[in-house]
Amino acid sequence: MKLRIKTLLVVASMLLAPVIALAAQTQEFTLKNGMKVIVNEDHRAPTVAHMIWYRIGSVDERNGTTGTAHALEHMMFKGTKTLKPGEFSRRVAQMGGRENAFTSKDYTAYFQQIEKSHLEAVMALEADRMANLVFNKDEFGREIRVIMEERRLRTDDQPQAMLYEALMATAYAAHPYRNPIIGWMDDLENMTVEDVKDWHDHWYAPNNATMVVSGDVDPRQVHRLAEKYFGKLQPKTLTRTRPQNEPEQKGIKRVTVKAPAENPYVMLAFKVPALRDADKDEEPLALDVLAAVLDGYDNARLGARLVRTDRVANEVGASYSGVARGPVQFILDGTPAAGTTTEQLEGYLRGEVARIAKEGVSESELKRVKTQLIASQIYKRDSVFGQAMEIGVMEMSGHSWRDIDRLIARLRDVTPQQVQAVAQKYFGDDALTIGTLVPLPMTEQSKPAAAPALSGPLH
């Protein structure tokens, strides 16, 4: 299956569809210990999404400790002073709910989807493991082996995932985004239970957490319950790591990965601006739209020309996510068709951006693209969980949930001239990293299986 380089959320399209105006139904308050609570009312069904977001992810790790944030996510299900290993999940299941967790470069989040009468119970569970997690050496030993197997199945045995990992490690010389969220295998092999405990003790605090509650709730009740279960927890002194800013790139970088695979594959990563100021930044919004023009709907430019018309590629894509704590990339990727080399496909992908840089996009095409993107968001905004995800990602990336509606309005105002301008400015050689997958012969043992859904937390 083709690896599409998008985040857990496709933030570019996340900003588009105002099916429900969040500002009209959302309230925010902060507990005395610094914990932020955001309540999004949606009374269409008697369900609630309850999420705890910690503003700590793999970006905060140091060399030699990669994978710690994700390893702690796993350990959060392994028991507290009052709960046995696995009991958290069993209790949520007994409520008829579902729960899980995920780690990203910028944050770690835990969630439960439940019938509204169980909100107090899951709040109590989350507060308990924020403050009272138990770190058992044997449990950690078992879980780190699960994580290493997860890495083998989802990265080491997946050629395109291996290429993406190598691409990021090459594109970034200094910034921690060069490291995989799950961690390098050597770091996992040398990780100790003390490493994970130190991470929890330092970063899992109310003043580094945001609670998002979305669904059929009364904000006053949520406030009362948050005070009851989290208000008594003490804040901690948070010392952020040094920024490790990325030095300026001054020429094309290349990396090649050889692995058993059915087809070659190529990825082009261009360093482009991230969204920093929701009121003023224009280029990130234009890059959002450029990605949609290239690959935002069924008849977008890359697929229409390179796959269906010219038949030089079997699959192609473009992606950009400007909402992040660190630097971001605009990715073009594709699998060449028979008779086309990866080098030729590089030229074809860049040629489509160059065409926009030279000729621009018409008002009618831009309108069509925006209509498609808005339509694609209807089902997500119809979900209380989807709304909670929107809020959480924005908050963890250094923005406010209030920016979501504002960005929707600003994105609708992006002009053809702005799209053409970013196509002209950011797609030269000096900020480009190219990754190429060279397929090796495959045996039955080397065929990459579809990455399974492992038991335990997501990442």
From TrEMBL:
Residues 36-182 form the Peptidase M16 N-terminal domain. This is Zinc protease. It comes from the Bacteria. It holds the Pfam family Peptidase_M16_C. GO terms for molecular function: metal ion binding; peptidase activity. Residues 190-373 form the Peptidase M16 C-terminal domain. Belongs to the peptidase M16 family. The keyword Protease applies. Residues 1-23 form the signal peptide. Transmembrane segments: none annotated. One of its GO terms (biological process) is proteolysis. SUPFAM superfamilies: LuxS/MPP-like metallohydrolase. Keywords: Hydrolase, Protease, Signal. It comes from Oxalicibacterium faecigallinarum. The keyword Amino-acid biosynthesis does not apply.
